[in-house]
């Protein structure tokens, strides 16, 4: 499943990044669901089934810093028009290593496939699993190129008490491989929770969603 892209992600999880050479790597989509742009330090990866020449020509025509071209709104709009896909936002991408032992709080796995958070995740990920804690939910599933991704939700009445940090820490105890998170940069509370739980920022990402993808329910990663 999307081995070239997965190789780049696996290397980034180890702290080995594409060369900071100002270039853009264009790769096929790992699957029909997932297309988008990954931006590392001075190197970007565009994964799409569109003609790579179109990608490069469109980037070259932009009047902007070439290091920022793949995340330039004009390029992203052109890519959405070309693919017929939409998007939500550019996310910060973080990764955390698995942790040994038991999670730091009690979790109960959700068996109901119609639970709102689990249902939302299934529109974007495979092999979704979800757990509840007192005041929150943690969800894992396989997203871009089969990487293991995590998202959390904290009830409004228990926020600012450190539960988000405990939930994303718990997810590292549930995983046996690197765990990825996508967080809206403006969601400073969520970013702080992931970073305080040991997740490391590795880049930025915009995913292009198919027209049939769900568009509601996105909270905290």
From TrEMBL:
Residues in N-acetyltransferase domain copies: 73-221
A Pfam family: Acetyltransf_1
InterPro entries: Acyl_CoA_acyltransferase, GNAT_dom
Coiled coil (UniProt feature): none
Name of the protein: GNAT family N-acetyltransferase
């Amino acid at each position: 499943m999307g081995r070239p892209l997965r190789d780049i992600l696996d290397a980034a999880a180890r702290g080995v990044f594409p060369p900071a050479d100002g270039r853009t790597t264009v790769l096929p989509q790992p699957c029909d669901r997932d297309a988008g742009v990954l931006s590392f330090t001075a190197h970007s990866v565009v994964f799409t089934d569109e003609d790579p020449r179109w990608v490069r020509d469109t980037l070259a025509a932009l009047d902007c810093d070439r290091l920022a071209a793949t995340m330039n709104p004009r390029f992203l709009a052109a890519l959405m028009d070309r693919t017929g896909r939409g998007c939500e936002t550019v996310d910060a991408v973080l990764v955390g290593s698995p942790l040994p032992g038991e999670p730091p709080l009690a979790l109960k796995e959700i068996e109901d496939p119609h639970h709102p958070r689990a249902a939302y995740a299934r529109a974007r990920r495979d092999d979704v699993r979800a757990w509840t804690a007192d005041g929150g939910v943690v969800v894992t599933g396989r997203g871009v190129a089969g990487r293991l991704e995590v998202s959390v939700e904290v009830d409004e009445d228990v926020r600012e008490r450190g539960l988000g940090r405990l939930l994303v820490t718990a997810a590292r105890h549930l995983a046996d491989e690197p765990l990825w998170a996508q967080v809206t940069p403006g969601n400073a509370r969520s970013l702080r929770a992931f970073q305080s739980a040991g997740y490391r920022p590795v880049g930025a990402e915009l995913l292009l969603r198919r027209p049939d993808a769900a568009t509601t329910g996105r909270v905290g990663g």
